[in-house]
Design a protein that fits this description.
binds uridine-5'-diphosphate-xylopyranose; alpha/beta; Rossmann fold; globular; 13% strand; six-stranded parallel β-sheet; 435 residues
């Protein structure tokens, strides 16, 4: 099928390359000429495992084309909208890019074609866009098909997702939209992926409520960590024990620095803002606590670092291991790790920060921090070690070797990812989260 993808960020670039991988002929559009040039040369503009491979394969097969020229989408049967919906100044989602993309697309979409939203939007956006699309192009149909991909697993989550959700209008238009999307995802559906057909509002809500649930689950366990810290209990053992209850489940119950990234923080804030607009703000009042618990984890680590350094971090050498919001990513958007690093620097600590992939992205936001090229370099002479992102490289560090590099053997395990016994045996004071 001829498919267009508008927006070549984390979501769009992966979606476009994945659609080519599924055998479609794809034209991918972005307003940023630098990004388009890099993608056209097979160079992924961000770190995402598996993306370089499917991108090169798509380019070599001639099934993908990158352009800044929106008119090239003409003739595609399905047009995916995968642009960003960043957090606006009030917390509500900024829909500038979605509105602009749909308005620009409208000029080239024909009757019987489908505009398929993938971006995360406030509920009600799709209905509004459907009205403007059908006024401009009678016979074209607007559909919402939310994306649930996790960074680091984005390719796998796009090609073999947990489920496909189609938000479609009722009647014949909805039926042809389902048929078109079934053709797009034929390979995925043949693997037995569940497919749910719902109305537009439900599709929009599925996405934000899934993220709200995940954020709540993380903040729940971090709230338990706060209590465990006071009574001397172990939140990891607690998570293991409650996680055995299949109704609760062990996934997403890792206490630590909390959630960051380009989705969960902004999505829970936008969801609250939308609920308030709709007059049902009370229904999501709990998300303000979810956000507050999450942000408290960062403050807690800064205080802990101060305590471990004798009450004042000024002039003290702090080794920071990890800057990305999670491992296998170079993304530092709303990253707890980078936030803590910048605060300690601001407080006067002499920070040496290292991340296997995110030094560059971090330096763009916090150029004042000192970044180094290896864990060893960060660790040399440190008065305190902070492990802030659970990269395998840090899990696998040999504590005996690290002990030989640092000035004082004290480590804060911000992600509860180290082997406490091994580090303790090597002479370290180990402070975990909620343990
Ligand atoms: C998330 C959703 O998982 C995905 O379905 C949605 O499409 C986009 O948002 P992503 O932002 O890639 O994906 O990251 P995710 O793996 O969900 O992790 C989010 C944050 O939560 C990370 O900072 C991670 O470190 C943190 N986290 C996750 C915890 O602190 N504890 C956990 O148990 C799990």
């Amino acid at each position: 099928m001829r498919i267009s993808v508008i927006g070549c960020g984390y979501l769009g670039a992966v979606h476009a390359a994945s659609m080519a991988k599924l055998g479609h002929e794809v034209v991918a559009v972005d307003v940023d000429p630098v990004k388009i040039e890099r993608l056209a040369a097979g160079d992924a503009p961000f770190f995402e495992p598996g993306l370089p491979e499917i991108l090169s394969e798509a380019i070599e097969s001639g099934r993908i084309r990158f352009t800044t020229d929106m008119s090239e989408v003409a003739g595609s049967r399905v047009h995916f909208v995968a642009v960003g919906t960043p957090q606006g100044p009030t917390g509500a989602a900024d829909l500038t890019y979605v509105d602009a993309a749909v308005a620009a697309l409208t000029q080239y979409v024909a009757a019987d074609e489908f505009v398929v939203g993938k971006s995360t939007v406030p509920v009600g956006t799709a209905a509004r866009l459907a009205t403007s699309l059908s006024a401009a192009v009678p016979g074209a149909t607007l559909v919402w098909n939310p994306e649930f991909l996790r960074e680091g697993f984005a390719v796998q989550d796009t090609i073999s997702p947990d489920r496909l959700v189609y938000g479609v209008p009722s009647g014949a238009a909805g039926e042809s939209a389902v048929a078109a999307l079934d053709e797009v995802y034929a390979t995925t559906l043949a693997e037995g992926t569940p497919r749910l057909v719902v109305d537009l509002a439900t599709a929009e809500l599925v996405k934000v409520s899934a993220n709200a649930f995940l954020a709540t689950k993380i903040s729940f366990i971090n709230a338990m960590a706060e209590i465990a810290e006071v009574v001397g209990a172990d939140v990891t053992a607690l998570a293991d024990a409650i996680g055995h209850d299949a109704r609760i489940g062990r996934k997403f119950l890792n206490a630590g620095l909390g959630f960051g990234g380009g989705c969960l923080p902004k999505d829970i804030r936008a969801f609250q803002a939308r609920a308030t607009e709709l007059g049902v703000g009370e229904s999501l009042a709990f998300l303000a606590d979810v956000d507050a618990i999450n942000l408290r984890r960062r403050a807690h680590v800064v205080t802990l670092a101060e305590d471990l350094l004798g009450g004042d971090v000024t002039g003290k050498h702090v080794a920071v291991l990890g800057l990305a919001f999670k491992p296998n990513s170079d993304d530092v958007r709303d990253s707890p790790a980078l936030d803590i690093t910048a605060r300690l620097h601001e407080l006067g600590a002499v920070v040496s920060a290292y991340d296997p992939e995110a030094n560059g992205t971090a330096a763009r936001i916090h150029p004042e921090v000192h970044y180094v090229d290896s864990a060893d370099e960060a660790l040399r002479g440190a008065d305190l070690v902070l492990v802030l992102t659970e990269w395998n490289e840090f899990r696998q560090l040999d504590p005996a070797v690290v002990a030989g590099l640092v000035e004082r053997p004290v480590v804060v395990d911000g992600r509860n990812c180290l082997d406490r016994d091994a580090w303790t045996a090597a002479g370290f004071t180990v402070r975990g989260m909620g343990r």
